[in-house]
């Protein structure tokens, strides 16, 4: 496994966009280069994303990989307080979730 | 040979002058306009209930047909749109009336057969369970507002075969507005999976309008020129190679980054983007910048279509409302939180049958919830307090609890003249399900 001696944020490594389908949210995260893609692949796991969105995404988070555009697609279920029509939130469609994911911190790692 | 398809509406509410922007500087063969979000179908159903002549996206008639019909016909640009909503016939009639008034000769075709509202009672209800929750259709059978199957692109191509100038559809999958013209022009067959998948990718990229040309870009957004943002054009060859561009001289940009953000927008498993025509693999395209503001996608692959049609049943599921109060510093957040506590106490004291509430503090946590870091001091906080119930009267009563807080609650609050008492709005919820192909018969009608 590679070492990353400095902590960072997803926003330093990627840009992103999010949207809705019913009560699901999807957050596409596109790495800026291959090294960033590798680090995201190691550290931005579905479990880390689920923890970062605690209180917003109540269901599961699944991660899909798009090698062709150096991206990951995260799909969260029970993510929008019932979905666009039912939701009592201001952001009924999860449009700002992508920005929240960019704030997610990734720790430094050392290979001990 | 290639076909150029432009998009001039990414949703109902997009810029009214989008078509004008494209016609001014763009060169293209087809103009497509996408109006139907999930929430829009419920709105259309309510409009049609109040007036049988409504139920379609009249932005199309007002901002595309009325001002531009003559130029579109002169330049032989054919138009494909899902503006028909739940009443394509009425939309087609409106277009023909406008043409008659201008002494223009236009042929309109509709694509229908998507409506399942009348057919629902004939479908075995045990097959209509909610795809997400598994719940039984019986639980909502009395609350149905409208129901639609998502049609594919072959009926759109069939409508184009008739020679019609304008194709107005009901509910079709969004990429069908792009794939339909490509099937028609390139003669693609139902087994041309890779090419059909290319058409789906092209449609997916342009169907949200300016979201692929720099709009909403979350990379280096400060460097984007949002003024007069260009609407997208997809140039698609018979082999299925796509080039995404925008008209010269318009704002925004088309780069591999803006295209990547849109490619991944509102999808699930990227290896299986399903439509009634083909299952497209969004991990297959090779994406490259060929020149400034031109991105090419090639090597796209697809596989067989799914057996069943996707359908959505729109049904009434109670009501909701929200009220807002603006608090200034000092202690803006603390004041707003106190107001929330008072509202909750009043709901209890009045024994209002409220099923759920949500308090958001705009300026602090409305977009990022519990993940938002708390600050020492805020200049101001907008309390947005929302509630949901099947008891409309309970919500109406709750709507009367906001204004009194201006004189009976925490200080330095304002904004009460902004819109009056909040009122309950009906929730038209969506119920995703699948229906058998035998329950759906796409139909093309020509109005010459």
Characterise this structure:
The complex is a heterodimer of chains A (112) and B (448). Chain A contains 4 helices and 6 strands, in the order E-H-E-E-H-H-E-E-H-E. Chain A has helices at 10-13, 34-43, 46-52, 97-102; strands at residues 8-9, 14-21, 24-31, 61-66, 71-76, 105-106. With 112 residues, chain A is α+β, with helices and mostly antiparallel strands. Chain A has a single domain, classed as 2-Layer Sandwich (Alpha-Beta Plaits), CATH 3.30.70. Chain B is an alpha+beta fold. Chain B folds into 2 domains: 2-114 and 150-306, no CATH class; 315-430, ACT domain (Alpha-Beta Plaits), CATH 3.30.70. In chain B, the strands form 3 sheets. Chain B has a 10-stranded mixed β-sheet with strand order 11-12-8-7-1-2-3-6-4-19, with helices on both faces. In chain B, strands 5, 14, 15, 16, 17 and 18 form a 6-stranded antiparallel β-sheet that branches. The mean pLDDT of chain B is 96. Chains A and B meet through strand 2, strand 3, strand 4, strand 5 and helix 4 of A and helix 2, helix 8, strand 14, strand 15 and strand 16 of B.
In a few lines, what is going on in this structure?
The complex is a heterodimer of chains A (112) and B (448). In chain A, 24% of the residues lie in helices and 29% in strands. With 112 residues, chain A is an alpha+beta fold.
